[in-house]
Design brief:
70% helix; alpha+beta; two-stranded parallel sheet; 440 residues; elongated
Length: 440
């Protein structure tokens, strides 16, 4: 058998081995996919939110803020105070009455005092305090929402990382198979002295690099699966299949119409608006200090075993306090609070503008990344097809080693660009969805 026939036989056997190994790998992948339950993205997010300790702490802060509102509301109601004291006298006490002599006082006597205070003019201040407590509760609620969205973003990025690795594995395995077949062809060319040993070594290195990249993708997907399971509170080895997701997002289509709604549900924007209300409430509280404070007081005093004093004393009193001269201290303080209101309004407007620009930029980045996937995928398919055609036509015409090397380089570079495009897309998608602030 001549060298040409040996080359043809070797290449045919190599091709059969590649096809057989590919079929076996595909069959194993289908079997694993069929056995493992599908973990949808929504289910992963739900499991992560249910068992997150940081979210539990944030929810407790909201509960504390709600209790602070209830505490502030009690200031509107009358305040009762009851006291009782009984002194113990160790010396003789007498009351000298002049010509009438003296009157001995008892050693044991007691007083009972009760009072009820009802604010009147302070009800306005108390109402502002209740409003401020409610706004603080709203801030705590927005922090809880922000924490929830952070957890959702982390889970999505982990899920998307696994999807990215899974999407890239197919193309990378196909590239490795083609490079192995080209390597065998180059080995045959070297045997026939139609190529240099250096060319074969170059092919070995490129095939090894492609296999290394494939190994990195497989390890990345395995590590991503383990980390996602741990984040969901499951055993790291729990098997699951991925939910296929469309590349296009419905939110991109109506982004212009939904921009106002997106701003309204962003936790950072909502916190900025609440901060404005808090600053205004603080300014109103400071402004109310220039008014007199008026309140009603009812007091009762009763004595036990104390002569010369009435047994029961009851009185109703109207209390009023006012600081008429303060050297304009309150005016300066009000001016400071008013500046704080202006600062909060400016920061909120700046934040809304920044968020709007960032949202548009992330939408454009997502559109560009999705477009790049299509471009790099077509380039990878074209490079692989050129190499296939070159391998199929090796028996019809002379095959130059440099053409084979160039085709291999093109396949490796195209696969690298495709993997980079996948990574850019899933990162851009996670950034865009985080900007949407959609809470599950």
């Amino acid at each position: 058998m001549d060298n040409s026939n040996r080359l043809r036989t070797a290449l045919s056997s190599a091709a059969r081995r590649i096809v057989l190994s590919g079929l076996l790998a595909a069959e194993a992948a289908v079997l694993v996919h069929a056995q493992a339950p599908t973990l949808t993205l929504d289910e992963a997010v739900r499991l992560a939110l249910a068992g997150n300790r940081d979210l539990s702490l944030a929810a407790q802060e909201v509960e504390k803020a709600a209790q602070a509102v209830d505490v502030a509301k009690t200031a509107k109601k009358p305040r009762f105070n009851v006291s009782f004291f009984e002194p113990v006298i160790f010396t003789n006490l007498d009351l000298r009455l002049g010509p009438l002599g003296t009157l001995d006082l008892p050693h044991n006597f007691a007083f009972a005092i009760g009072s009820a205070t009802q604010p009147i003019s302070q009800l306005y201040d108390i109402g502002l305090g209740i409003k401020a407590a409610g706004l603080s509760k709203d801030l705590a609620s927005e922090r809880l929402r922000a924490a929830r969205l952070t957890v959702v973003d982390e889970i999505k990025r982990a899920y998307y990382g696994i999807l990215r690795a899974d999407s890239g594995l197919k193309a990378s395995r196909e590239a490795v198979g083609l490079l192995k077949e080209a390597e065998r062809l180059m080995d045959a060319l070297v045997t026939e002295r139609a190529a240099l040993k250096a060319d074969l070594l170059d092919v070995h290195a490129r095939r090894a690099k492609q296999e290394h990249d494939l190994l990195v993708l497989e390890d990345m997907m395995a590590t991503g699966r383990e980390r996602l399971n741990v984040a969901l509170g499951r055993d790291p080895e729990t098997p699951f299949a991925l939910e296929p997701l469309p590349l296009a997002l419905p939110a991109e289509a109506d982004l212009t119409m939904a921009r106002a709604a997106i701003l309204d549900r962003r936790p950072d924007v909502r916190q900025g608006r609440i901060t404005i209300d808090l600053a205004k409430t603080d300014w109103q509280l400071k402004k109310a200090e220039q008014l007199p404070h008026v309140g009603a007081l009812f007091s009762y005093v009763g004595n036990i075993n104390m002569p010369l004093l009435p047994g029961n004393i009851a009185a109703a009193v109207i209390q009023a306090s006012w600081e008429p001269f303060d050297w304009d201290r309150k005016g300066y303080e009000r001016a400071t609070k008013q500046v704080a209101v202006q600062q909060a309004e400016t920061m909120a407007r700046q934040l809304e503008a920044t968020v709007a620009v960032d949202l548009n930029a992330r939408a454009r980045a997502l559109r560009e990344a999705r477009s790049l996937i299509a471009v790099t995928e077509l380039a990878a398919q074209a490079a692989q097809e050129r190499l296939r055609v070159m391998l199929d036509r090796r028996n019809e015409e002379a095959l130059l080693a440099k053409d084979l090397l160039q085709a291999q380089v093109a396949v490796a570079e195209a696969d690298h660009n495709y993997q980079a495009a996948l990574l850019a897309y899933w990162e851009a998608r996670a950034d865009f969805e985080k900007a949407l602030a959609v809470e599950p």
